[in-house]
Write a sequence for this structure.
């Protein structure tokens, strides 16, 4: 009887228990741009970062699985299909005219946000109590998460998704919608929102900074005349060294010339201006000869006058007086004398000439020395100015180099973000739908078969175990130790089973 009751209950469970339909989809996760490189904003401010891979492919696949199982993605699916569609297992195409979606969730809804867009659209303020629609939505999310099963296929790059519901169209819609929402969120999660505009702004700013720095460097070179800094520095140093060498040579030459001029002055001061050219001893005096000639002429004149005039004549007297004076002078004059001839000192004159020649040389050397000192001071000032200018130019050049490097970096990142935006616009990622959501109109073997089998097993167990239990209970009641427990009448005596059997045999 228990076996028949169990069979009847199992058949009734199979008849009443609702049928389930399954839809499946598979995602293939290949190694692509989304997982093989860092986001463009991750390398800002760093010289170089190589392409980065996840620690293991298993971690990447587990990340995909966790996102597919997330509540935020379930809210997006419910936002598209509608709360009542999930709760009542309705066909989405048939329920569109009756139940409109609660909130349309865009593909860009943040998966990791605390309050997604759909939840914000249907939620009330924290000070108000939850409405019945919120409870229905939570129930729908819970039910949807129980309906979905996402798991990674072992030792592969495939993620398997399946959904069981009472409606085959609903199962297919749920899986397809889940895959679409995930693909959209995967594109968004692996790209930084606003990165392209940020890098465009930074690239423009760096380009303007580079232009300003180039203009400052050009103006500085125009003002200071620094066309080739290294070459000009060598020229300035070489010129200063040459001037210093020439200054040393000029100083030495000036000192030598001054010493020579000083020696000549001392020599001129010690020398007489004139010197004796000749000295003759015993030379007859030319005056005596003249006096003799004059005396002879006077004697001849007196003789001539004596022949003409008398002794008392005045002219004769005068002539005789001149003759007497001439004789006295002639007699008093020495017969010979020393003749000394003097002339200019040639050494003195030569020293004077040499000193005169040295004076312009000294003046030229002093002027050259002053000019060299001035030129050396100017050269040193030019070197100082050059050093200061070179430091300023080096700072500007360093800033320009850094700005150019930053501009190059931002330009490269800008191109990366442009590529990411283009990939996102065309919905290109490293996730491929290997198997779209399937439509299986044939119900699957659900838990009703298991329930029926369990009921049948319980029926068989009860059919066998119940008589054994009753028999065991009867044997316990025949025990004298258990009689007081089942009756208030006191036990008088007991008969063993063998005696009872014998009595019953004897009676027969």
């Amino acid at each position: 009887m228990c076996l028949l009751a169990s069979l009847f209950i199992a058949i009734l469970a199979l008849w009443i228990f609702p049928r389930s339909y399954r839809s499946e989809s598979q995602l293939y996760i290949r190694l692509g741009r989304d997982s093989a490189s860092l986001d463009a904003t991750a390398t800002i401010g760093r010289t170089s970062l190589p392409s980065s891979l996840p620690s293991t492919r298993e971690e990447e696949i587990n990340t995909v699985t966790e996102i597919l199982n997330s509540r935020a993605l379930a809210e997006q699916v419910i936002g598209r299909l509608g709360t009542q569609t999930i709760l009542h297992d309705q066909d989405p195409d048939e329920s569109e005219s009756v139940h409109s979606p609660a909130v349309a969730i865009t593909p860009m809804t943040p998966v990791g946000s605390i309050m997604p867009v759909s939840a914000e659209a249907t939620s009330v303020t924290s000070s108000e109590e939850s409405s019945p629609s919120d409870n229905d939505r939570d129930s729908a999310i819970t039910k949807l998460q129980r309906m979905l099963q996402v798991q990674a296929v072992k030792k592969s790059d495939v993620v398997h998704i399946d959904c069981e519901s009472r409606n085959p169209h609903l199962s297919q819609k749920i899986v397809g919608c889940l895959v679409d929402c995930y693909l959209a969120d995967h594109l968004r999660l692996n790209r930084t929102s606003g990165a392209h505009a940020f890098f465009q702004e930074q690239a423009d700013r760096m380009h303007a900074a580079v232009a300003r720095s180039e203009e400052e460097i050009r103006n500085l070179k125009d003002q200071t005349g620094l066309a080739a800094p290294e070459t000009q520095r060598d020229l300035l140093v070489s010129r200063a060294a040459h001037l210093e060498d020439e200054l040393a040579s000029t100083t030495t030459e000036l000192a030598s010339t001054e010493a020579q001029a000083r020696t000549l002055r001392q020599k001129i001061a010690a020398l007489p201006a004139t010197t004796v050219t000749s000295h003759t001893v015993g030379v007859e005096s030319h005056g005596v000869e003249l006096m003799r000639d004059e005396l002879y002429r006077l004697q001849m004149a007196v003789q001539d006058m004596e022949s003409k005039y008398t002794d008392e004549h005045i002219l004769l007297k005068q002539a005789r007086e001149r003759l007497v004076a001439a004789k006295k002078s002639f007699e008093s004059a020495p017969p010979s004398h020393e003749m000394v001839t003097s002339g200019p000192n040639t050494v003195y004159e030569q020293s004077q000439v040499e000193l005169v020649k040295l004076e312009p040389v000294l003046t030229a050397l002093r002027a050259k020395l002053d000019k060299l000192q001035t030129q050396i001071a100017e050269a040193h000032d030019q070197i100082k100015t050059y050093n200061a200018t070179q430091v300023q130019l080096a700072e500007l050049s360093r800033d320009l180099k850094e700005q150019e490097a930053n501009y190059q970096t931002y330009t490269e990142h800008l191109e990366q973000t442009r590529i990411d935006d283009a990939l996102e616009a065309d919905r290109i990622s490293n996730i491929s739908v290997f198997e779209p959501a399937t439509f299986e109109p044939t119900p699957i073997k659900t838990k009703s078969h298991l329930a029926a089998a369990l009921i049948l097993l319980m029926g068989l167990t009860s059919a066998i175990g119940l008589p054994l239990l009753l028999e065991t209970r009867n044997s316990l009641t025949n025990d004298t130790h258990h009689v007081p427990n089942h009756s208030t009448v006191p036990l008088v005596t007991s008969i063993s089973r063998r005696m009872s059997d014998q009595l019953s045999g004897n009676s027969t």
Notes: The CA atoms of residues 28 and 158 lie 5 Å apart. Confidence is low (pLDDT under 50) at residues 47-54, 97-130. The longest strand covers residues 274-284. The radius of gyration is 70 Å.
